[in-house]
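Hi L.,

You mentioned the student needs an example of a multi-chain input paired with its predicted structure. This one should do, with 418 residues in total across all chains.
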Amino acid sequence: MTPATLYGLCSAVLVGAGLYGALVNPQPLRKILALNLLGSGTFLLFGVIARRGAAAGLGGDPVPQAMVITGIVVAFSATALAVALLLRVYQETGRTTLEQPAPKDVV
Amino acid sequence: MSLALLADAALVLLVLGLAFWINAASRAFPAVVGYVAFGLLLALAWLRLSAGDVAMTEAAVGSGVTGAVLIAASVRLRSAETEAPPPALPLRLLALLLSGLVTAALAGLVLWTTGPAPSLADQAVQHLPGLGMGNAVTGVLIAYRALDTLLEKVVLLLALMGIWSLAKDRYWGGIPGPSRIQPTNGALILLARLLPPIGIVVAVYILWVGATDPGGAFQGGAILAAMWLLVMLAGLRDAPAISRPWVRLCVTVGPAAFIAVGLTGFALPNGFLSYPDSIAKPLIIAVESVLTLSIAVILGLLVAGPPERQP
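Structure written out for the whole complex:
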């Protein structure tokens, strides 16, 4: 087994773990974390593909590597915006979950 | 199994262990701390995949700046954190099945396609001398796929506008973040006085060396932003009111310069965002320098959050 294959398998598990966490965890902050895991797994898969495309004396294909750098930045932007939205929801409602309050609270 | 592969396997196990911890930790704060460690270990994995530029970005942005945002949020939400019940067991099993299928499909893809991947490395290296560069990744970012990089900066700006627009009406144009009690942590204040001069030199070096070695505008900008955040955290300087003209100028000057140079591409060489060969290198350095400044200010303000105080 080559290192690239090993990291490829690692990325596959990371994507699965991120997807599961985003689906199952009820806390929005934990969902944001899980989506970041999912993103990291996807980027790592790109890195493995880049490594397998090593040519011209480079350790990997620079095009997917550059795309991953752009991807990390965009993922950060999305995370920062999502966290700001979550904090605003907390300021407005005093709650950190997205579930509807129980009927007795509404009255 | 060689020794290097054994080290790889250990790193993969650590990364996966932290990933499960991030999902399973009962409170948000330990999970976020796990995420920061996860990002740093992932940066090592990127080094093992011969992607030094990505490793630096992952350590600085994926782990560092993202970690700062998440830690601040988890601390503010800590008092209100409630034990929300997880979904019912059948739903969890269904989610497990779905994630398992996705993982199996990706793992199959990795295992069955073992040959060399199609690569643009040759073409990328071929035209680098014309740009006066040695680092192919910087070449791709700033020249071949410059439109992606430009749009990435626009995404950063849009995220900043989105965060600012979450301010309450009476705080519009005000100072980001809640007012802090001045910390009396002597070590932090000393660090915030000693480290920034060194950090600024390192950031400029990373920017300059990006032409030939791992580094570049984004990595340099992230280090500058970290220095600024350190000064703000130590309470030496407050965050600026977002209505200040210099703040608006700093966040827009980078993308604006990029677009301006891109538009001159219409008049001189082949089209939007192409550089004339003779002055490609000076133009690229100029664009990267102002981009670094904009990136640093935007990253710092993204971490600082929406205005929550009167200017």
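You could point out the following to them. Residues 62-93 of chain A form the longest helix (32 residues). The CA atoms of residues 93 and 104 of chain A lie 15 Å apart.

Best wishes,
N.
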